[in-house]
Amino acid sequence: MTLWSLAACGEIPQPFRHDGINAAVAPPGPRGVVVRPPGDGPSDQALVRAIVKRLTDQDIPASTRSAASGSWVLDAATETTIAAKTLRWRLIAPDGDTPAEFTQTIPAALWDKAGPATIDRLADELVARYAGALHGEAAEAAAPPRVPTVRIEKLGGLPGDGDAALPKALGNALRRLGLVLAGAEAELIVRGRVALVPGRAGEEVLDVTWIVLDARTGEELGKAAQQGALPKGRLSGPWGALAGDIAAGGAEGIADIIAAIPQK
User: Fold this and answer.
1) In principle, which of 91, 103, 178, 180 could form an S-S bond with 107, CB 3.0–4.6 Å?
2) Which ranges of 143-230 does DSSP label H, i.e. alpha helix?
3) How many Cβ atoms sit within 10 Å of the Cβ of residue 23?
C-alpha cells in the first residue's frame, strides 16, 4: 500500500495559482478611509457616524477604527469662538500628502444642539467634497456653502408688547446663529403662529409654531414648534427676557430647518 503524506512532500509548485488580487493588473478601486471625530461631544460623534455611512453607501470603505497601512485619513482641526464652530477638514494620503482641505463653519449654538438636519447637511457637504478623491479622481476646489436670506413676518393679536418684542428677539437670535435677515428680497420667510390657551388653574399655555417658507414659491420647508406654561396674565405687559428665551429656542429650530435645505 502506498501512503501519500502531504506533510512529507512539502508544497507542490503551483505556478498558475492565484491568491488575492495582483496589484499590477487589478482595476483601481475606492480608497479606504479612517474618519476621526473632530471632538468628543455628541455632535462630533453623530457627524462621524453620518460621514462613515455616506462613504460606505458610495462603496468607499470607511471606519472610525485606527488606520491600517495604506489607509487614507479624514480628520479636522477645530476652532471654537462664542459665535461659531469651525471644522478644517484634511484628507491625508498614506504618504502624508493632503490633496484636499475643506472648511465648514457652524453657528456655535446650533453645533451644541445639532439636530439630524444639521448633521446630515454637514456630512453631505463633506462627502460630496471628498468622494471623488477617494474614488481616485482629481479633487476640485469647493465653494463655501451660501446662507440664504430670511425675512420674519409681522405678528398680530398678541397680548402686551408681544407683536413687536417677539419678532425683534427672533431676529437677534437668528443673527447670532449666522443667518442673514433681509426685506422683500429675502429668499426665505419665517411665519409665526402664536396662540395662548387655558392651562391648569392659574396658568396659560403659549403655543408657538415657526414655519419656514420658500419666498418665491410659497412652499413650506419645515416647522419648529414650542410650548410652555406661564402664570396667567404674564404676557399682558412687557415680554422682556421671556421674548428672548422663546426666540432663542425657536431660532435653533429654524436654523436646523434652513441647514437642511439643499444647496442650489
Assistant:
1) 178
2) 162-176
3) 7
Count CA within 13 A, CB hemisphere, residue 1: 2
Question: Does the pTM exceed 0.85?
Answer: no
Length of the chain: 264
Helices 116-134 and 42-57, axial angle in degrees (round to 10): 50
Task: List the Cα angle 8/13/14 in 5-degree steps.
Answer: 130
- Residue 245's domain spans which residues? 149-259
Quick check: 259 pLDDT over 90? no
Give 145-157 pLDDT, tens digit per residue: 678 899 999 999 9
Compute the distance between CA of residue 192 and CA of residue 250 in angstroms, rounded to an integer: 10
Of residues 14, 85, 99, the one with CA closest to residue 47: 85
Residue 53 half-sphere exposure, CB side, CA atoms within 13 Å? 11
Q: State the average pLDDT for the chain.
A: 80
- Total domains, the chain: 2
CATH (domain of 93): 3.30.160
End residue of a domain, out of 134, 165, 188: 134
pLDDT tens, 224-233? 899 999 999 9
